[in-house]
Task: structure prediction
Amino acid sequence: MRWGPLALVALAWAGLAQAYPHFQLSSDVAICASCHVAPAGGGMLTDFGRDQSEDPLSGGGNGGLLHGLVKLPGWVRVGGDVRLAGLANSPGRAEGVELLAFPMQADLSARLGTDVISAVASVGLRSIARQPADNGGVARSTPLPVLSREHYVLFRPEKLPLPLYVRAGRFFPPYGLRLADHTTYIRRDLGFDLEEEPYGLSAGAVSEAWEAHLTGYARDPLHAGGPGELGGAALAEVRAGIAAVGLSGRAAFTAVDRRLQAGPYAKVWLEGPKLLLMAEVDGVHQRFQVPGAPSRGQLAAYAGPVWIPLRGLSVGAAYQAFVEDLSVAGTAHNAVDLWASWLPISHVEVMLSARAQGIGGNGAWDAMLQLHYFL
Amino acid sequence: MSALLALACACGGADTRPADWSYIHAAIVTPSCATASCHGASASAGGLAFDDAVETRRLLLSKPYVTPGDPNSALLFLLEGRERDRMPPDGPLPQPDIELIRRWIEEGAQP
Result:
């Protein structure tokens, strides 16, 4: 009886540095794309985003590349993220709590071009929490230690009545709250887990009061797990004052299933108590291309407040649920998250997070310390 | 929303899903195990890729993680966290999923 191979699994908690969606509204910035190069946020920062990383989002410092020591021409933009993690993980196993320390992320990214047309690409180390071991001679290729989570061309024509864009390449279709943590149920169980960025063609518009994105995609056969997938996703968001409300949907087709999902999300910023409330609920209908197999309905949800009492300090809590099959009792995943993020100066983040899960009669918990530096 | 979620989590009835490998692979193994960073083809954690149903069953039987008819098959020990590591490592499967896999094994682990 062999145990080793199955026990050694790549595990990581963060993908490409995503936006921290609690900074929308709470920092007087309504549009994710104000601070990020990507039209729907996430990843490489704009000059304005670097300014924001100094004040009000951290304790201060210089948000420029390498703390302002390096000046690049306007058509070159460079970024990067390094995250080191310490993890205590207890999925309910005979050997007790598992303790790990590992490099969670090491990505470099670059943008070449102008505000009208540009090419963006990242390259980084594949995050491996547990080292692969011998598998008794089973012939599988060793995964490449490096990968490019994102690479795309972005076109933003000027002087149009609408602020339109077109993007083509590898990236996540805009969907829902777009949380940084890919292990949240609304990411992991809805097709936005680690390394699942598909290749797509996206078009949309982003204005102060609203934004909309439409994406057609094909799951990357070289990087993604599961059967090849074709699909489309759409997101529309409107904003007014302290609130943002959105609706997103996605259709995915593989050789073994067809999956339709959609749901609303919302954020509200309460200036007095310095609280951002955010929530997302998605319903899923999945039909299997398997003779005699029943279709199933699923539900994924996330809700919780983020308290931002001081410059650079965010404290969050959330309740999550994912019901794997609404017709079968005992298939619900429930989780409570607690986290705190401290950015003492621009570029530097210390994050502590914990999650307790109840999953259909089984329990699990984990706690993680992250040290994050961005270029 | 809390009421909606409480209702959703509390609903559901008896498990009438088929203990059929094609269904188990599509409904449980693919989303829970064959992910891009774990047992998907690109990561092949531990040298194991579970993308394809036929190949996954062959791997499980050849190691052997699954012994047809044996409710003490190693795969069940892994899924239940008995003796050593638990799979998946970031959160166990719901018990009904484990029971469905147990039924499939007990009924002969047919393709």
About this structure: Chain A is about 5% helix and 50% strand.
